[in-house]
Amino acid sequence: MRIKNKYKKPMTLRCCDAGSRCSTSVFLLSLLGCLILFQLYCYVDHTDRSGGGGEARLHVSHHPQVRELQEVEEENLNVPPPKGKRSPRAVKRRPKRTTTLIDEFLDENSQMRHVFFPGHKRAIDPMQVVDNDKYHYYPGRMWLDTEGHPIQAHGGGILYDKNSRTYYWYGEYKDGPTYHAHKKGAARVDIIGVGCYSSKDLWTWKHEGIVLAAEETNETHDLHKSNVLERPKVIYNEKTEKYVMWMHIDDSNYTKASVGVAISDAPDGPFNYLGSHRPHGFESRDMTVFKDDDGAAYIIYSSEDNSELHIGPLTEDYLNVTSVMRRVLVGQHREAPALFKHQGTYYMITSGCTGWAPNEALAHAAESVMGPWETMGNPCLGGNKMFRLTTFFAQSTFVLPIPGFPGMFIFMADRWNPADLRDSRYVWLPLIVAGPADEPLEYSFGFPWWSRVSIYWHRKWRLPQGWNPFQTM
Ligand code: DGJ
């Protein structure tokens, strides 16, 4: 009995101890289980939401031609040993004779110049093309319009016009001499206007002319040639039946930091300039506009010395901003925003702020266009490390969805040539949203809530055969 008694109490106590430990563990396990179930539910709900039937579950990589584009293509570029004279600017930048690929890119006298800016001979003339080249994009080569002239649509974007079932590509027409207006200022070309090109197949581009032209004489006009007009984008307003162009308007010192608005009855212009302002009263430099599926449109611009982006809805007629504005990617110093949407999630590619020199792109995602926006990392795949760290020596400008291939987009970027801006090139590459994001994300408790945005390097590629240019977007 004594022995029994001796052990009874402690036994009861141990039991009690074990019991409470046990129930704590059960509680914790159930909590974890609930959390996992909740995450699973959210994930399934998220992928099903607004995807439209089977589309949400359709992985782009099930298409063999898209799978081909997802193959990682490496580049082996060797920097040649220094030879001959280097430009004074290159010497100043890096006095020692060790050179990197980026030095070579920025050196006008580099022996590798033809690698980054292949000459006219290798241009693709859509009228005299051999079958092997037809519909193929060669990132970085000179692209010609249907008349054989180099396409001038830098920092641009594409509008799909449902009325005419035609794509319109708008951008900076920079076919003038490059010079420095101020000793320390950025290289520039006087404003000539906004170039417009039309296409049915996204490959053959017909020049429609300059749809918004510079002002030659009135020096106080925003569009006076001595000013800056960059990154024009056009959206169509179904209610007013007007084509509305938004653009970055600045002086040659980039101190005006405003947005300009122009309007037209037709996609191929002419556009009527309405004026400029600082959106929400803030500086605005690199910018874009984004039209959502519900017809609401938004402006996104780099502000506060390019240290953050601002996002806000436009008025119903798209001619102004409303009073609503959110600051996003605060302190991240991003510019060149290009926004797109996939299965109800908003994505954005941005660049860093290094003038005309290339830098690392980042992909961001958000549940609501107004944020919060989360940074997911560098989307570039393939090439080599330097290619990936310089966005393939280019800077984002627009992301265009490919109808019929949910999750597939064309990433449009500019390979700026600061020594001769008119000779800047276009780097278009397949952008695919698929698979889990690389990094655990802040707003998703570490779960791969959003999909990875991947931009695949290819020397030569084409859109999947059978893409339907006329499917409603
Ligand atoms: C980077 C911007 O993205 C370009 O649009 C242009 O403004 C250059 N800076 C000018 O240096």
Automatic annotation (TrEMBL):
Transmembrane segments: 21-41
InterPro entries: Glyco_hydro_43, Glyco_hydro_beta-prop_sf
Annotated keywords: Glycosidase, Hydrolase, Membrane, Transmembrane, Transmembrane helix
UniProt KW Transferase keyword: no
Region (Disordered): 69-94
Domain of life: Eukaryota
PROSITE patterns per UniProt: PROKAR_LIPOPROTEIN
GO biological process annotation, one example: carbohydrate metabolic process
Composition bias type Basic residues, residue spans: 83-94
Molecular function per GO: hydrolase activity, hydrolyzing O-glycosyl compounds
Entry similarity comment: Belongs to the glycosyl hydrolase 43 family.
Protein's name according to its UniProt entry: Glycosyl hydrolase family 43 protein
